[in-house]
Structure formats: structure tokens, C-alpha cells
């Protein structure tokens, strides 16, 4: 049993945020995180449709929410806050990913580091009132060669792809261990990974997957 799991089960022990999102609350935290990421990506997709399909002027192409509350789409502070949220999620939940899933998760993390840096540059320009290269609006580094709408749609896409690959490997791994929380035990008292491996050894050769660990419930 890991130290994180012991802390979660010991009465009166304070549980940190990292322990929560990688322990008993991992599935919930990851689900909420993915929902926020997906919603943000949809907004960028809708904005592109407004420009290229509906022929709307760029200043008026504000996505779905931006049509109701324009300041939400034009606020550099809000865009930076989302980039910070996405980066924080990638850092905090990284501990739950292993093997190939960890490598894909790390790829998404490092791309998001640059994406966050770009938004930080935009925020500083907005705050200081001085824009890069004398542009009339806050401008990021890559935005000097690519329009903002297309650039940030690409940014969100190239972060989302490795993120989804990592989550797929994490949730649908062969041994099903990704679905069990850290510190869980099988009915025979062993760790889910050990139990799943013994189950796989005893199973017929045609069986390609063991999902026993997925059924282990976290004690209240």
C-alpha cells in the first residue's frame, strides 16, 4: 500500500490536492478536467466555423459563449487562467500515469508549457498596454506568422491529441489496473496489479485482457 493510500485511510490525516486527484478522487478529477478541456476546444472550433463557414468578421467570431458575454472571449486574463488550469491539471495528475500513458501525458504537458508561455506573453502585453512588434493588439511569438484564431486552434488540438491517447492507454490498459485507485486491494488481499497478473496467467491463451482490478471499490 502506498504512503498516499495510507494517508487517505488514516483518520484525521490532511489530504493534499495532489493526493486527492491521484487517489480516491482521481476518476472524478480526470473526468471534470476532460470536460473543461473539451468545452474549451469546442469554443475554438465554433469560432473557426464562424469565420470559414459562416463568413463572419473575425472581431465578431467569438464562439458560443462569447456571443452572449463577449468579454469572456476577449479577456486575456481569462484565456491565461484557462491555460494555467490546463497546465496545472497536467502537472497534478501526471503521477497517476505510467508507461506509454505517461509518455503521451508528458508530451501534452510540454506542449501546454509553451502554450501557457504564449498566453503569459499576451497577458503581460494587455496589462502593460505595450504590444509585441508594435501590433495594435496583444500578440504572441508564433502569432507573428500565424493568425491568432488558427494558431490557438492548433495549440489546443496538438495538446488534446496526446492527452486523449494518454487517457485511452490509462483507462483501457490490458490489466485494467488504471481503473483501480492507488492502494486498493483485491479480494485476496493483494495489490490489483499482482492479482490481475495472476489472473492473466491462469486464463486461457485466447484471453487478451483482465479487468478484475476495475471492480475493486475504494473503501469509504
The secondary structure category is: mainly alpha
DSSP summary: helix tally: 9
Relative helix content: 55-70%
Sheet with the most strands, sense and barrel status = none
User: What is the helix/strand order?
Assistant: HHHHHHHHH
Number of strands: 0
> Are there runs of 5+ residues with pLDDT below 50, and where?
1-8, 174-192, 194-220
- Overall mean pLDDT: 78
Work out the strand percent: under 5%
Tell me the Rg in angstroms: 22 Å
The rounded distance between the terminal residues' Cα atoms is 16 Å
**How many domains, in number, for the residues?**
2
Form type = globular
Features:
single chain, disordered N terminus, 60% helix, disordered C terminus, mainly alpha, 0% strand, 2 domains, 220 residues
Amino acid at each position: 500500500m502506498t504512503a498516499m493510500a495510507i494517508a487517505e485511510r488514516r483518520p484525521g490525516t490532511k489530504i493534499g490536492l495532489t493526493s486527492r486527484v491521484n487517489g480516491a478522487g482521481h476518476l472524478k478529477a480526470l473526468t471534470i478536467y476532460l470536460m473543461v478541456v473539451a468545452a474549451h476546444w469546442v469554443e475554438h472550433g465554433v469560432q473557426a466555423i464562424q469565420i470559414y463557414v459562416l463568413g463572419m468578421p473575425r472581431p465578431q467570431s467569438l464562439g458560443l459563449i462569447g456571443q452572449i458575454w463577449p468579454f469572456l472571449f476577449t479577456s486575456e486574463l481569462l484565456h491565461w487562467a484557462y491555460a494555467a488550469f490546463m497546465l496545472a491539471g497536467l502537472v497534478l495528475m501526471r503521477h497517476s500515469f505510467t508507461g506509454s500513458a505517461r509518455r503521451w501525458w508528458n508530451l501534452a504537458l510540454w506542449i501546454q508549457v509553451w502554450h501557457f508561455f504564449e498566453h503569459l506573453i499576451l497577458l503581460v502585453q494587455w496589462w502593460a498596454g505595450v504590444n509585441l512588434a508594435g501590433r495594435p493588439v496583444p500578440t504572441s511569438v508564433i502569432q507573428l506568422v500565424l493568425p491568432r484564431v488558427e494558431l490557438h486552434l492548433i495549440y489546443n488540438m496538438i495538446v488534446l491529441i496526446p492527452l486523449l491517447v494518454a487517457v485511452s492507454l490509462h483507462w483501457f490498459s490490458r490489466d485494467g489496473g488504471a481503473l483501480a485507485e492507488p492502494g486498493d486491494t483485491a479480494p485476496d488481499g493483494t495489490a490489483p496489479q499482482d492479482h490481475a497478473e495472476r489472473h492473466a496467467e491462469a486464463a486461457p491463451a485466447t484471453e487478451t485482457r483482465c479487468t478484475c482490478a476495475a471492480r475493486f471499490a475504494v473503501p469509504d
